[in-house]
Amino acid sequence: MGVMRLGYVHTRVTDLEEAKSHYGETLGMKAVHAEGNRVYYKAWDEWDHHSVVLEEGGVGLVKVGYKVSRSTDLDLFERRAQQFGCITERMSKGDNVGIGDGVRVVLPSDHVLELYHEAEYVGTEVGVINPGPFPRHLVGVGVPRIDHCLVTCEDPETLERFFKECLEFRPAERVVESLDGGALLGSWMSCTNTPHDFAFIKGPNGKLHHFAYQLTDWHEIKRAGALFTMDDVPVDIGPTQHGITRGETVYFFDPSGNRNEVFSGGYTVYDDFPTITWTADQLATGIFYIGRELSERFTSVLT
């Protein structure tokens, strides 16, 4: 029983053609379906139908989807969410292209979370029989898979409690105002063995800070940064390293202003992993360990 991983991010864009160039040509995702004002993408090492949905008409997050281990998990998570006080509704197979029945939850942060068990199997670009380590003809960065997303919320303590009590996520790292009972400012939560599958920091409800793709190593992070320059992609910060999660990173923007990230490294989270705590006076070091400086843009630009 449990939530297995992030399955998809559905985001709005102002210009679908510009967005298709960014996600298809620069990041190297493959368009697998298009209908109306939406295009569905998957990365080369993902096997389910899609992991990113682009919808023309604004900016910001429409919803995120997380895949669960068994269909019976949906009943349990729905009941827990309702007991927590969240609005829920059932979604049917076909409501989302390539996705089976599920449960839609409006989080305490006003974000929409979808839980599902079944997804149409498409397969990776290298297959599962004697596969190569990567496809021969990668495009752009050639992102292999989606990794995590980070949002903002007015009440991080309540949102953290929801993910712990209802979905059994574990806080790998937290930022607090102080160690003597100070308020929670952010939480990086894991349902797998990575430092964060869903994260949030204090800010307005319903906003997206970024969603991220996993790369192999520091070399790939630097190469992605160079490609962003070649394609005139606005870079927010990086290449650099986080203190929180210890990952290597570049933050950048799609043509609509939605922040993306490429991320590598980090550490392994086991069931007995002790939560790491950062204090607010060290937040700049926690976010960007090398530069130890937070720009106003990084904390204020949201979609």
SSE order and pairing:
Elements: E1 3-13, H1 16-26, E2 30-35, E3 38-42, E4 52-56, E5 60-68, H2 72-84, E6 87-91, E7 102-106, E8 112-116, E9 145-153, H3 156-165, E10 170-176, E11 184-190, E12 198-202, E13 207-214, H4 218-230, E14 235-241, E15 247-253, E16 259-265, E17 276-279, H5 283-287, H6 296-300
Parallel strand pairs: 1-4, 5-8, 9-12, 10-17, 13-16
Antiparallel strand pairs: 1-5, 2-3, 3-4, 6-7, 7-8, 9-13, 10-11, 11-12, 14-15, 15-16
Fraction of residues in H or I helices: 10-25%
**What proportion strand?**
35-45%
CATH topology of the largest domain: 2,3-Dihydroxybiphenyl 1,2-Dioxygenase, domain 1
Physical arrangement of strands within the biggest beta sheet? 14-15-16-13-9-12-11-10-17
Low-confidence stretches: none
Tell me the overall shape: globular
Distance between the termini: 33 Å
Fourth-level CATH superfamily of the largest domain: 2,3-Dihydroxybiphenyl 1,2-Dioxygenase, domain 1
Structural class: alpha/beta
The top-level CATH class of the largest domain is Alpha Beta
- Main beta-sheet annotation: 9 strands, mixed
Number of strands: 17
Radius of gyration: 18 Å
The figure for the number of domains is: 2
Helix count equals 6
Second-tier CATH architecture of the largest domain? Roll
Order of helix and strand elements from N to C terminus: EHEEEEHEEEEHEEEEHEEEEHH
- Average predicted local confidence, pLDDT: 94
